[in-house]
Design goal:
375 residues, disordered N terminus, 7-stranded mixed sheet, mainly beta
């Protein structure tokens, strides 16, 4: 089934709460900012709906460290929805029901399979956020090869791509910049080709390549491990944070081409809304600060992996990581409270740890930032 959809989104910042969904909402896709309370704690979430799935980021307002939704939102009975986020062995989830514009239910955190705490939550969509605002474009497709097995067990091909897209109310200057930026990210060299059509063309190219590859395989070969002949690709742009100056976006991609598992990761981007440019480290850090920032990263990774200050990092030397030192990376993002540095699977740690997000508060970066940052 193929769908290319453009729907209205209200991008935003503001501070206050995690996870949402809208099973009663018949709109196929949207992006929303939700604000509310989990127990007595305010938090903010940027949530994206595509079909029956929900993805995004949320953070607690006090610290503004974005947490990626690790599981797609799963519709329950009627208007109930379950959404979860996972970080190593700890997960948070919201199980609730939406009666627009209210989403309410029970938040829980678990370690392993044991629920350690639960609280009531209630939040609403926030429509007072500053521009820019976005529509959303996405294309999804799935099929299976007639390999002689039961339906659903044959090798399959899945394609998914989604992007934010400026609305008519988005300031023209930024809208033009953002459209060009999106086309560059996805490799659409023909700016006159609508991004949705580009997604369809990419899907068709991938599908044709897969069919050609698999057509020569004997059906007997599918019986042992049909998934080794399956192909899957996913790409989506997700809002992590926004204020009147900056828009932080995660470009998430995932590929499966056979083997034990697929691999995916996020490339972070921070866009300067007023000056229509993407920020690099040189735009935010003072010269000759690399060593000091890497010392902060070293301290952050030791907290994350419970590594003593004097212990080695690398597993080759008895540590937990794949590297002897955490290098400064251009894969970063900004929030109102600090800078996050993201490391994809296998970059500094084993695949099982997923992406490693090291967040450094502005309070620890004093004297290291360009004027105007962290204020």
């Amino acid at each position: 089934m193929e769908k290319t959809t453009i729907t209205r989104f209200l991008l935003q910042l503001i501070a206050v709460l995690p996870l949402l969904a809208a099973a009663q909402n018949n709109t196929i896709s949207w992006n929303k900012v939700l604000t509310g309370m989990i127990g007595n704690t305010p938090a903010t979430m940027y949530l994206q709906k595509t079909g029956k799935e929900y993805h995004g980021y949320y953070y607690y307002d006090r610290v503004q460290i974005p947490i990626k939704l690790g599981d797609a939102g799963l519709p329950g009975n009627g208007d109930s929805v379950h959404i979860a986020a996972w970080d190593q062995e700890i997960s948070e989830s919201l199980d609730g029901r939406i009666t627009e514009p209210i989403f309410a239910g029970t938040w829980a955190t678990t370690i392993g399979e044991q629920t350690t705490s639960s609280l009531p939550f209630s939040f609403t969509e926030n429509k007072t956020v500053p521009a820019p605002y976005f529509d959303m474009v996405y294309t999804t497709y799935e099929t299976e090869f007639p390999g002689g097995l039961e339906k659903g067990s044959n090798p399959g091909y899945d394609y998914f791509a989604a992007t934010l897209w400026p609305m008519a109310t988005t300031p023209v200057s930024f809208a033009n910049f953002f459209k060009q930026w999106v086309n560059v990210q996805f490799g659409n060299k023909n700016s006159s080709l609508p991004i949705g059509k580009f997604f369809i063309n990419e899907k068709n190219r991938g599908l044709a390549s897969w069919k050609k590859e698999i057509s020569g395989v004997k059906k007997e070969a599918f019986k042992d491990l049909p998934s080794s002949y399956s192909r899957s690709t996913e790409r989506r742009l997700l809002v992590m944070y926004q204020n009147e100056k900056y828009l932080s976006i995660a470009d998430y991609s995932y590929e499966f081409s056979g083997g034990a598992h697929g691999n995916g990761g996020s490339t972070m981007h921070t866009l300067d809304i007023k000056n229509n440019k993407e920020l690099k480290l040189a735009d935010i850090l003072m010269p000759a600060t690399k060593h000091k920032v890497e010392q902060l990263l070293d301290a952050a990774v030791r907290v994350r992996f419970h590594i003593a200050k004097t212990a080695k990092l690398s597993s080759d030397e008895g540590g937990e990581l794949l590297v002897k030192k955490v290098e400064l990376t251009e894969n970063f993002y900004l929030t109102g409270k600090g800078i996050g540095f993201n490391y994809t699977p296998y970059e500094i740690a084993a695949y099982a740890y997923g992406e490693v997000n090291l967040f450094i508060p502005y309070s620890k970066l004093k004297g290291l930032l360009r004027p105007g940052l962290g204020e």
